[in-house]
Structures are given as C-alpha cells and as structure tokens.
Amino acid sequence: MVTKRNSSVPRRGRPSISRGAGLVCAAAVAAALLTGCGDDDDGGGTTTDAAKTAQTPTPAASPSAGDGSLTEDQAERKALIPKAKVGYEEALRTAVAAVDKSKPVSVELKGPADSPKWETEVATSDGAKHTVDVDAVTGKAGQARADADQDASDKTELADRLKKATVTPEQAAQTATDKTKGTVSSVELDDTDGGTPKWSVDVVSTEDWNKTTFDIDATNRKILREHVDRD
Asked: What ranges does the record list as Polar residues composition bias (predicted)?
C-alpha cells in the first residue's frame, strides 16, 4: 500500500499546471511505484522512497557450503575420478614395465572425463626420464617418450633423488589415505627446500570432492605438510 504524502497534495495558490503535474505524478506512483514527482520548471524529479525500493534489484543468494553446490574444480574432479577404472598403482606398474630398468617418478590422472589417462613419468638409474601415458579405462600403455628437455645436471639431480628415496610411491600414498580417505589422483617425487626427497600425494574425497595434498618424507614416511584445496 502506498500512503499519499502531504507533499503530493498541491498547495492553494500554486499555478494550475503544477497542480495538474502533481495529480499525474501521484497517479503514476500509485500505479507503478516507478515515477518520481517534481516541479516542471527544473526538468528533474525527486524519486520517491517506494520507487527507489522498486528500482533496486534484489541480490542473488550466494551458494552456501551446505546447499550441495560445487566449484568448477570440484565438478571436474567429480566428473573425472569415477571414470578411471585403473588405479594409480596399476598405471605405475605398466609404465615401469614399458621402460627397462626404470623407477616411478610421478603419476597424475588427467582428462577429459570421456577419455581419462594416467600421465606417468619413470626414470632409469642415470636419471633419464620418460613419459608414458596409460589409459585409465583399459590400462593400455602408449609409447614411452624420452624427455628431450633434460640436460646432464637434470639427470644427475633426478638420479640422486631416486637413490635417496627409500619410501615407495605406494607407501607414501598409503600414509596419505590413512589420514584422509579418498582416491589418489597424483603422486610425484620432489625435493624439500632442504634437499630431502619427498612424495607429494593428492587425495580426492568422494564425499565433497575436495583435494588434500600431502608432502611425505621419502625416507621415513613422515607427513611434512597437509593442505586442503576446497576450490
């Protein structure tokens, strides 16, 4: 209901044109609550409070954590993870078998969801690295590809890292999933700032599709860092 204000009622003695404008203005406010009313001589008008309220859009409700909405990354994980019928362990075994006398360096599940694959990296004792793509549905391995970007120092560094790492990727992943239940989507051998080898393990929870990354000491299985990605 719109209450007619005293200011909308023309005062005695004002010109008839102003009185007519006031009547038209009041009718417009009652009908649409959108038209402002003012004197004709300055070309402008003062918008009524009701009109301001009608013109202000109502903000859209923001998604809440409990309404079941997913972020873009969570939606991608939800679409990809269930499509992988082959686990990371089998993918690593397949990749190691494809390159003679090699050890696992990394494995990561990649899309698209309708054609998932495990991108794996293995290296020989001299640090020479090879990439092997393993079909995450059939388990079939593609052709091993040598890393053309590696130089002599890269190979020496990787060979030293592999030699120091006494914890296997499977053991590191077990440590991670003992802490957070979920599906392993990535395991990678790296170094800490102090030069100690570590395994970085990503675990995706199938309850909320968050990803937890663990840095695990590759010499004693100690958890060095834990980070939850809720994006």
From this structure: 168-186
Cis preceding linkage at 116, omega within 30 = no
- Residues counted in the chain: 231
Q: Can you point out the beta strands (E) in the chain?
A: 102-110, 117-124, 129-135, 145-146, 183-191, 197-204, 211-217, 223-229
pTM of whole model > 0.90? no
Please say whether the structural domain 75-229 has been given the CATH code 3.10.450.40: yes
Domain boundaries, the chain: 12-55, 75-229
